[in-house]
Design a protein that fits this description.
Elements: H1 2-15, H2 23-39, E1 47-48, E2 53-54, H3 57-70, H4 78-100
Antiparallel strand pairs: 1-2
Helix pairs in contact: 2-3, 2-4, 3-4
Length: 101
């Protein structure tokens, strides 16, 4: 089991996903994302992140925020924040596209 942990840690660092956030930064980022998703209308119906298609965006947001909050500072769960940040950018880009039309 310990070997698995170190192999996983090695893969995380190798891919550049190593979490460099402090607990305070983690909490602040989760709060910022919560505020963004609460205040910004979601105009896209589904989101394709290149790996999967997310059909129920509100459920995706709720589950990822819950996991990120419950595992503050745990580098195994930093990808939940990264995926929310990617979705945030997609929503911002979608909003810009609609405003330019």
């Amino acid at each position: 089991m310990v070997l698995f942990y170190f192999l996983r840690l090695y893969e995380i660092r190798k891919r550049g996903y190593f979490c460099t956030m402090t607990n305070e930064q983690w909490i602040a980022e989760v709060k910022r994302l919560e505020t963004f998703f609460r205040e910004t209308p979601i105009l896209i119906k589904e989101y394709n992140n290149g790996h999967s298609i997310i059909g129920d965006i509100p459920k995706f947001i709720d589950s990822h925020l819950a996991c990120a909050k419950a595992n503050t500072g745990n580098e195994w769960f930093v990808n939940y924040i990264y995926r929310l940040q990617e979705l945030e950018q997609a929503i911002i880009n979608q909003t810009r596209t609609v405003q330019q039309s």
